[in-house]
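Much of what follows relies on a compact textual record of a protein's fold. Think of the row as the fold of the chain written in a discrete alphabet. An example makes this concrete, so a full record is given next.


***
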Amino acid sequence: MTRTKKITLCVFVLMLCLGIFQMSIRPSGAQPLTYTVQEGDTLWDICAKVYGDADLWPKLWEMNPFITNPHLLKPGDVITLLEGVPVLKGAPVSMAGKPAAPAVSGPAAAPPGGYELSSLKNIDSLGYLSTSEVVPEGIIVSGETDKIMLGVGDSLFVKVYGSASAGDRFTVCNISAPLKDPHSPEDVGYLVTFLGRLRILEQTKENLFKAVIEKSFKTIRKGDPLMKYVPVSPCIKLTKGPLGLATYIAAIEEQKVMVGQYTTIYFPKGSEQGVEPGQVFQIVQKREVEIPGEEKDSPNTTTLPDAVLGYCLVVSTTADTGTGIVMSAKRDISNGAPMKILDWTTPPSFFSVIPSCRPE
């Protein structure tokens, strides 16, 4: 091959590569992405669906000045999306002038396995909220020695009110006094805190057994009540919940006032109301603003999209209560904060740092 032919070939390859590169890059602002409003959409919902961040809604509103109310959108309207903000994979967006891709239906975007939570919390220690008075199934009678505080490996004697045999396990717990409902003068229930777990070794007398403490989450003492041990899997598979499902924080672990990341919270809805382990709830703050009316003394009140304070993953349920872990806390969260089910297409970004697992 002559030198001239080699140069020509190199120039051709270089031009071909540049052409492919230019075809794969869309200049910023050349053809903006759009979203077609669906029935029931709000700007908050669209930002959560398209970007995975509902808090971007004010910027999206600013981008579309024809919108007069961010939570009352007209189905079929085409919204221009933000430039320079990456969209979620599978989000129903389109290039300007082209039809939108169909929305992904169902929880297909969820990982085939689950998320391993044992690095965040000891799942056996979470406890639960009971809306009715709790009847213990046993009680710690005495330690084998004169120790006041008992821990892992200590032998003790327990009284069981029902049947028990060697190898049976019981959860040592603390039952709170009735808790006030944060939204009414009524009681919301009793917080059952798990202190540890013991295993029955042998029966010594009728209803009296020798046992050993296998796990201790908090201080265990003589007189602590017992409940039958019910295992909770630390491997949680994400699942969607019914749209419109809503509740509120009714109690916080250790009866705290404020909530932070990985705090355990309790709420007064359970399996009978459609709550299941693996669902994700948004913890929100309701917002209303006054808009000046035509007359100075008659302002109008309008409701803005809820502010998202954080996200909660449901870990376990009873028939009428749920227990969850706050996976993300963007702002201060207090007892009584409203919660509503998250309709996700892809798992929220905070799950990316949690190890995967295979549910049993």
